[in-house]
UniProtKB/TrEMBL annotation:
Alphabetized UniProt keyword annotations: Oxidoreductase
Molecular function via GO: oxidoreductase activity, acting on paired donors, with incorporation or reduction of molecular oxygen
InterPro entries cross-referenced by the UniProt entry: F420-G6PD/mer (IPR050564), F420_G6P_DH-rel (IPR019945), Luciferase-like_dom (IPR011251), Luciferase-like_sf (IPR036661)
PANTHER family: 5,10-METHYLENETETRAHYDROMETHANOPTERIN REDUCTASE (PTHR43244:SF1), PTHR43244
Organism: Agrococcus jenensis
Entry keyword Oxidoreductase: yes
UniProt keyword Oxidoreductase, yes or no: yes
Coiled-coil ranges (or none): none
Domain Luciferase-like intervals: 12-289
Protein name as it appears in the record: G6PDH family F420-dependent oxidoreductase
């Protein structure tokens, strides 16, 4: 069991993200995972820095902490050749500590390059081509590729690490789980859905299974729920909605009916270790083995202390 800390780039300034990663290593986290968006989700969010620059700085300032994108879309805003190059470089400078988490993207951030937003079938076919290109470039040598959506012309990634990064593929249903089994090294999800792992395994999937665990450390449960509502109320919308809305204003409007009480039910809110273990266990029991604590706390240093002294040992004991 590996336990990670979510670097929520949409609501945290760049230097603070780096500082929190350093503190996460000191507190005993195994890895950090960073979101890779151009825009934030909600009007309350006032940041959205370039994830690859942040990860490079973290690699230079830490020694054992593993790094992951959670997740990058390598098929619209980025060309997959650029992601193949970036991930290979980061794997080298981090001494083999990087995992490439990938997904098919959201309109929120991908539309900014003016290529529109494909319907879901084309989006997933394009995503498949992107993964094929990354694998091709990581095989060494010069390559060209011509797909229905993406092309590559005489490209080579010159600096390849001795051990390639693992590719962990985000999936929300059985078709995406099959793609993760075919072209990925692991699975990524945000829901404790055991059937997703079953579909992935049935398709030949084997490897790490990542999932994000919602927590909101605070002096009391109500304060934690209020913090979760302010920062993460977009989460209950589900990926069919999350992938389609265009901007923070639309997300604000779509979340008007979500209550603080809804967040208290979904998140591990407050200082009660056993409540945090209860929520964590839902994801562990579903079969996920790389669990990322996505904390809504307004005091990250207090949360780090809570994890180091109480929560981390208790979670590892429960695992």
């Amino acid at each position: 069991m590996q336990i990670g800390y979510k670097l929520f780039a949409e609501d945290v300034a760049p230097k603070e993200l780096i500082r929190r990663a350093v503190e996460a290593e000191r507190a005993g986290f195994d890895f950090v995972e960073i979101s890779d968006h151009f825009h934030p989700w909600l009007p309350e969010h006032q940041h959205s820095s370039f994830a690859w620059a942040i990860l490079s700085a973290i690699a230079a300032k830490t020694e054992t902490l593993r790094l992951a994108t959670g997740v990058t879309c390598p098929s619209i805003r980025y060309h997959p050749a650029i992601i193949a190059q970036a991930a290979a470089t980061l794997q080298i400078i981090s001494d083999g500590r990087f995992t490439l988490g990938v997904g098919a993207g959201e309109r929120l951030s991908e539309r900014i390059v003016g290529q529109g937003w494909p319907e879901v079938g084309d989006r997933h076919r394009r995503f498949r081509e992107a993964l094929e290109i990354i694998r091709l470039l990581w095989s060494g040598g010069t390559h060209s590729y011509r797909g229905d959506f993406l092309t590559l012309q005489d490209a080579r990634v010159y600096d390849l690490p001795e051990t390639l990064p693992e590719i962990v593929v985000a999936a929300g249903g059985p078709q995406a789980a099959a793609l993760a089994a075919e072209l990925g090294d692991g699975l990524f999800s945000t829901d404790p859905d055991a059937s997703l792992i079953e579909a992935w395994t049935a398709a030949g999937g084997d490897g790490p299974r990542y999932c994000e665990v919602p927590t909101a450390f605070a002096p009391d449960a109500r304060a934690g729920a209020e913090a979760a509502h302010e920062r993460f109320r977009f989460g209950p919308l589900g990926w069919k909605v999350l992938a389609e809305l265009p901007d923070p204003t639309a997300f604000d409007q779509a979340t008007q009916s979500i209550r603080v009480e809804d967040m208290e039910e979904a998140f591990a809110c407050g200082p009660d270790v056993e409540r945090h273990v209860e929520v964590f266990s839902e994801f562990r029991d579903a079969g996920f083995d790389h669990l990322v604590l996505m904390d809504a706390s307004t005091d990250p240093d207090a949360f780090m202390g809570f994890f180091q002294d109480e929560l981390g040992p208790r979670l590892r004991q429960s695992a």
